[in-house]
Amino acid sequence: MLARIMNIEAYFERIGYKNSRDKLDLETLTDILQHQIRAIPFENLNIHCGDAMELDLEAIFDQIVRRTRGGWCLQVNHLLYWALTTMGFETTILGGYVFNTFTDKYSNAMIHLLLKVTIDGRDYIADAGFGRSYQMWQPLELISGKHQPQTPCIFRLTEDRGTCLKPFEIKLRSVTTFPHSFSSEEKNLWSW
C-alpha cells in the first residue's frame, strides 16, 4: 500500500529539472520532456521478472520517482501527464496503434500511450516513452505537412482523410479514462 503523497518537487528532482515551473509555454514543455527522456528510461523489467505492470498513478510514481526505475510508455507518459497537468498545462492522454514494418500492419489493440498538450491554441504531441530510435526529443506540432527536424529524423505529420498523421506510423486517439478505454471499437483520431 502506498501511503506517501505524490510530490511534484520529487518528480522534478528525479528528472534533474531546475528550470522554470511557472511558465506554461513550449520552451518549458520541451525542457521538461527532454529532462524526463534523459532521466527515465523505457524499461520493461517487470515482465521479465514476473511482476505485474502497475498502471495506477501512485504505483507508477513509486516505481519511477521513488525507486528510480524506468517504465513502459503507459507508465512514463502517464507520469508526464500528471506532472504537466499539475503544473497547469492543458494535457490530453492519447492512445495509439503501432505500425509493424515486418507485417505491414497496425497492432490490433492500442499498445502505446502519449500526450497532446495545447499551448496558446496550438496542439503538440509529447511522447517520453517510445523507447526506440524514433524517440522524439521535442514536442511535435500537431499540424499536417510541416517538416519538424529533430535529432533522430525529420518528422512530418501527414493528414489522411482527416483521421491520420504518419511520420513513423502510430495511430493516435483521445483516451477519456486511463487505461480502461483502450478498445478497438473506438474511432482513430490520428496516426503518426
UniProtKB/TrEMBL annotation:
Gene Ontology molecular functions: arylamine N-acetyltransferase activity
InterPro entries for the chain: Arylamine_N-AcTrfase, Arylamine_NAT_domain_sf, Papain-like_cys_pep_sf
Signal peptide: none
Top EC class, one word: transferase
Pfam families per record: Acetyltransf_2
Listed EC numbers: 2.3.1.5
Xref: SUPFAM superfamilies: Cysteine proteinases
Keywords assigned: Acyltransferase, Transferase
Keyword Acyltransferase in annotation: yes
Annotated family: Belongs to the arylamine N-acetyltransferase family.
Protein's name in the database: arylamine N-acetyltransferase
Source organism per UniProt: Cervus elaphus hippelaphus
